Automatic annotation (TrEMBL):
It comes from the Bacteria. NCBIfam families: galU. Its EC number is 2.7.7.9. Residues 10-277 form the Nucleotidyl transferase domain. This is UTP--glucose-1-phosphate uridylyltransferase. GO terms for biological process: UDP-alpha-D-glucose metabolic process. It catalyses: alpha-D-glucose 1-phosphate + UTP + H(+) = UDP-alpha-D-glucose + diphosphate. SUPFAM superfamilies: Nucleotide-diphospho-sugar transferases. Keywords: Nucleotidyltransferase, Transferase. Belongs to the UDPGP type 2 family. PANTHER family: UTP--GLUCOSE-1-PHOSPHATE URIDYLYLTRANSFERASE. GO terms for molecular function: UTP:glucose-1-phosphate uridylyltransferase activity.
Length: 300
């Protein structure tokens, strides 16, 4: 039986950031390798891509990111030791990250922004649609958004961004989308993108979060996009150009219905660890009991 053709087969995951908000923890350890319960944050992101049918991934890396490559590589000595001990559960966990996907690595070199990082993946992606996943955002696997975004690309022919409803007074912390309805309740058409607007002037309360499914035309636009905010090449600027170009495929949005965990902020990172651990079968019951007890002590 012939396997159905997948529209989106490849993903770009930018991981070249320095992680300065987590210093000194990230002095020698990439921020993407910080543990969320018992897996590094980056593994959750790769697993999300794989669950959406994407098994060809290019990570855009920088200096001091070698632990990322090591994590997804074989560790023959460790596997042999676990096998000798008969610890097959831990052996399976170790091998799982190795066998997840076909992962490639490209150095960004100069830190010229997210748009520049995405552009570094152009040769690997080629002229086909692809996903971009940012490592600071973890999406709850119970309600994945990538499959909906891929469907939206197939249906509309345009690039797609993930959106999340936030309190209007907080929209100045995000990129914001101006939207109009389409014939599909799950998809909106984006007419403009504004970076961190004043809440009083924001066109909506829909924030852009770190998931994109893009047509390869974005590479052509990024090639001619001038540095913007922070003197960096911004992906948002390229998408704004596509959204307002009547000859382009346009840009659409899918609104997240599930949970998003932000691991890019220290407090939100701690919340993410607690929430994900509380959902675990092996940890959840004991942790939830302890949280209630701890909260009671705080009130006292």
């Amino acid at each position: 039986m012939t396997e159905p053709k997948r529209t989106v087969r490849k993903a770009v995951i930018p991981v070249a950031g320095l992680g300065t908000r987590f210093l000194p923890a990230t002095k020698a350890t990439p921020k993407e390798m910080l543990p969320v319960v018992d897996k590094p944050a980056i593994q959750y992101v790769v697993e999300e891509a794989v669950q959406a049918g994407i098994d060809d991934i290019v990570m855009i890396t920088g200096r001091n990111k070698r632990p990322l490559e090591d994590h997804f590589d074989r560790v023959v000595g460790l596997e042999a030791a676990l096998r000798k001990k008969g610890d097959m559960e831990k052996l399976a966990a170790v091998q799982h990250s190795t066998d997840l996907a076909d992962i490639h690595y490209v150095r960004q070199g100069d830190p010229l922004g997210l748009g520049h990082a995405v552009l570094k993946g152009a040769k690997h992606v080629g002229r086909e649609p692809f996903a971009v996943l940012l490592g600071d955002d973890l999406i709850d696997e119970a309600n994945p958004i990538l499959p909906e975004m891929i469907r939206a690309l197939e249906q509309t022919g345009g690039s797609v961004v993930a959106l999340m409803e936030v309190p209007r007074e907080s929209i100045n912390l995000y990129g914001c989308a101006a939207v109009e309805r389409t014939g599909d309740d799950g998809i909106v058409k984006i007419t403009g993108l504004v970076e961190k607007p004043d809440p009083a002037e924001a066109p909506s309360n829909l924030a852009i979060i770190g998931r994109y499914v893009l047509n390869p035309e974005v590479f052509d636009v990024l090639e001619r996009t001038e540095p913007g905010r922070g003197n960096e090449i911004q992906l948002t600027d390229a998408l704004q150009s596509i959204a307002t170009d009547p000859d382009s495929g346009g840009v659409y949005g899918v609104v997240l219905r599930g949970k998003r965990y932000d691991t890019g902020d220290k407090l939100d990172y701690i919340k993410a660890v607690v929430q994900l651990a509380a959902q675990r079968e092996d940890l959840g019951a004991d942790l939830r009991d302890w949280i209630k007890e701890f909260a009671g002590d705080l009130d006292a």
